[in-house]
Design goal:
The chain is an alpha/beta fold and 272 residues long. It has helices at 15-24, 43-62, 82-91, 114-129, 144-157, 176-181, 198-208, 228-238, 243-258; strands at 3-5, 26-32, 67-72, 101-108, 133-137, 166-168, 185-189, 213-216. Helix 3 (82-91) runs parallel beside helix 4 (114-129) and helix 7 (198-208) crosses helix 8. InterPro entries: Metal_Hydrolase, TatD-like, UCP005295. Keywords: Hydrolase, Metal-binding.
């Protein structure tokens, strides 16, 4: 089955991973800007990173028949440096016309601090000003519930936002209902240490029916599995779910959400 991974960090993966993903059925992916494993010290460091996301990775992906899209921001882990964050936010419009840029992301909270909230809100202003879709990072583990509520409140307070153009990622059992109830899209991340397993993701699909729900691997520098989405496909098949439901979650839903971005020019694989 062809599938799309809506959140994977290929700058941290080898070229062999692209080949493996292609063999597993991945036809497209989106790569949000994120932490590099260390705090960057200048706006030029981010400019070079955005060139990698908009120039280098699309070419690496295309060599294996995969379409590569991206999102731009300064990640919440680096948002404590408000001055640098503002310089990066001011620079991002240089790249918004790049053909693979879908919007602003992954923005959000890490430790739920005041500075993180300030930078989050300024990213929202950028997205609204430039009519961009938004991809949200929710915090890890013990900060998950509080941070998600904080993010949802900040989003809901701005009446200018189109909630159908906002994806709130890394949802779990205790956050998914509120995300969907408030009208946003929800992303489930299949991660071997934190976030959720294919079995838990399958449970959440059964709970919600799969509407406005995406699933991703978030493969990055740490312990992660770039082929986690096929693991979910296998689990859903093992449970006897219809192929139409599986395709909806791993293929149709990403296309529907990404299509809200003007730069999303997806070319389905020729079935002939």
């Amino acid at each position: 089955m062809d599938y799309i991974d809506p959140h994977i960090h290929m700058v941290s993966r080898t070229t062999d991973d692209y080949a493996t993903l292609a063999r597993m059925g991945c036809v497209a992916m989106s790569e949000p800007a994120f932490w590099a494993g260390y705090d960057r010290g200048s706006v030029d460091g981010f400019r070079d990173y955005f060139r990698q996301l908009t120039e280098t990775e699309p070419k690496r992906a295309a060599a294996y028949g995969i379409q590569h899209f991206t999102w731009l921001c300064i990640n919440a882990k680096e948002a404590e440096n408000v001055s640098l964050s503002r310089d990066v936010i001011a620079m991002i419009p240089e790249f918004l016309d790049a053909p693979n840029v879908l919007g602003i992301g992954e923005i959000g909270l890490n430790k739920n601090t005041r500075n993180e909230s300030i930078v989050f809100l300024e990213h929202l202003e950028l997205a609204i000003k430039h009519n961009q879709s938004i991809l949200i990072h929710t915090p890890h583990l013990e900060d998950k519930f509080q941070g998600t509520r904080m993010i949802l409140d900040m989003l809901s307070d701005d009446q200018r936002l189109d909630r159908t153009r906002v994806l709130v990622d890394h949802v779990e059992e205790h956050t998914i209902a509120e995300v969907l109830d408030r009208g946003f899209w929800a992303g489930m991340t299949l991660y071997p240490v934190t976030k959720c397993t294919p079995e838990r993701a399958a449970d959440m699909i059964e709970m919600t029916g799969g509407e406005r729900l995406l699933v991703n691997s978030a493969g990055d520098w740490g312990p992660s599995k770039p082929t986690a989405v096929p693991d979910l496909i296998f689990e859903l098949r093992r449970r006897g779910h219809r192929e139409s439901l599986i395709k909806k979650v791993v293929y149709d839903n990403p296309i529907e959400f990404f299509s809200k971005s003007s730069n999303f020019k997806f070319k389905p694989r020729d079935a002939s």
